[in-house]
TrEMBL record:
Keywords assigned by UniProt, alphabetized: Hydrolase, Protease, Serine protease
Gene Ontology cellular component list: outer membrane-bounded periplasmic space
SMART domains: PDZ, TSPc
Source organism of the structure: Peptoniphilus harei
Pfam families, per the entry: PDZ_6, Peptidase_S41
UniProt key word Repeat: no
Domain of life: Bacteria
The name this protein goes by in its record: Probable CtpA-like serine protease
Length: 389
């Protein structure tokens, strides 16, 4: 039994290739016989258990997770990772829009830091002044780097009503700042609707399973209200479910190849096409450094087709797609499997989307969006452009 403890590593690879459940016994025979490195894992496990000073505290599940995480980390891809049962549960919560924590989306940066992609609008982190581009140095006094991003995320989550201290390196002034944030039940309203005079405002905070349906509903409501145009605000939107972005594209874009996905052979594995039925209401799109992934797919298609002006700042630049593979014991694998290309054939990975009209925000602005119209210069510019049409 001991020999088989760590050989789930091989099961991951086989599951990906065969998409079938493979027993650990089969894994042991097929892998150990052909690759001596897996034999080293068994020897190393034995040595750790016999010689580690605190060997009585060793937890089998932690060692196993560490090995699996190390295997995927060897890809040196910031978006691919082995997921424990708890992490799979967290990922599921993100796609359904409910969890307990501070409400911040983080990503590993190329410099090895944990970087804030965006705070969720209206969340405790947002109210505490956490901003896109801030770097998280410590959480509750513990140091965190990109290689420990899963632990960082777990450290910030917790029971609603409890507090967490986060040491930030602020992007705007490169000074450190510690904030204490009380955790809450985070319910993400992924689609926000409002009116500004004769114009409609739709904010998309992220793309979850309900976003496409909710967007089409509020778009129709605003159209029925007779608005003269719409501001589509995707600032701080870290992405999410690609199908939701496609649903929105299908509602507002003419017939086109919305986005294509290519695998590691350069083959097109998915081509999302919109039909010729769409709402052609006037529109301006807002993006910033926190707009990533699915929000960039949508903004890129809108830009390529000249459907609307893009206003704000250059987007994050995440142009790769991850598949999540569920493993037999409730854990999983998130793996970068494809790259997406806009209708014009452009990749934006590590490049981002440049706005048609670049607008900076005031240095001391307290927030963005409908509640901060008087100081939100990007929103002001979007409305100005709508009125010019």
């Amino acid at each position: 039994m001991k020999k088989n403890k760590f050989l789930k590593v091989a099961a991951v690879a086989i599951l990906i290739l065969a998409t079938a459940v493979v027993t650990r016994i089969y894994t042991v025979k097929s892998i150990l016989g052909t690759n001596e490195n897996f034999g080293k894992v068994v020897l190393l496990e034995k040595y750790l258990k016999e010689n580690y000073l605190y060997n009585k505290d060793i937890k089998e599940e932690n060692l196993e997770a560490g090995i699996l995480k190390g295997l995927v980390a060897g890809l040196e891809d910031p978006y691919s990772q082995y997921l424990t049962k708890d992490e799979m549960k967290k990922l599921s919560e993100q796609t359904t829009g409910k969890f307990q924590g501070v409400g911040v989306i983080i990503s590993p940066a190329e410099d090895g830091s944990v970087t804030v992609v965006s705070p969720i609008k209206g969340s405790p982190a947002d109210r505490a002044g956490v901003e896109s581009g801030d770097k998280i140095l410590k959480i509750n006094g513990k140091d965190f780097s990109a290689e420990k991003i899963d632990q960082a995320s777990k450290e910030m989550r917790g029971q609603a009503g409890t507090s967490v201290k986060i040491l930030l390196l602020k992007k705007k002034n490169l000074k450190t700042e510690e904030v204490e944030i009380k955790r809450e039940e985070i319910k993400i309203d992924s689609v926000l609707k409002n009116k500004i005079g004769d114009y409609g405002y739709i904010g998309i905070t992220m793309f979850d399973e309900e976003t496409g349906k909710d967007f089409k509903k509020v778009l129709q409501e605003l159209t029925d209200d007779g608005v003269k145009g719409i501001v589509l605000d995707m600032r701080g939107n870290p992405g999410g479910v690609v199908d939701a972005a496609y649903e929105i594209g299908d509602a507002i874009l003419p017939k086109t190849s919305f986005v294509t996905l290519k695998n590691n052979k350069g083959e097109v594995i998915e081509d999302y096409k919109t039909d010729d039925k769409y709402n052609d209401i006037k529109m301006v799109v807002l993006v910033n450094e926190g707009s990533a992934s699915a929000s960039e797919i949508l903004a890129g298609a809108i830009s390529d087709l000249d459907r609307a002006k893009i206003v704000g700042k250059k987007t994050y630049g995440k142009g790769v797609v991850q598949n999540v593979i569920a493993l037999p014991e409730g854990d999983g694998l998130k793996l970068t499997t494809s790259e997406y290309f806009t209708p014009s054939g452009d990749s934006i990975n590590k490049l981002g989307i440049e706005p048609d009209v670049e607008v900076d925000l005031p240095e001391n602005i307290k927030g963005i969006g409908i509640d901060y119209q008087e100081t939100d210069t990007q929103l002001q510019k979007a409305l100005e452009i709508l009125k010019e049409k």
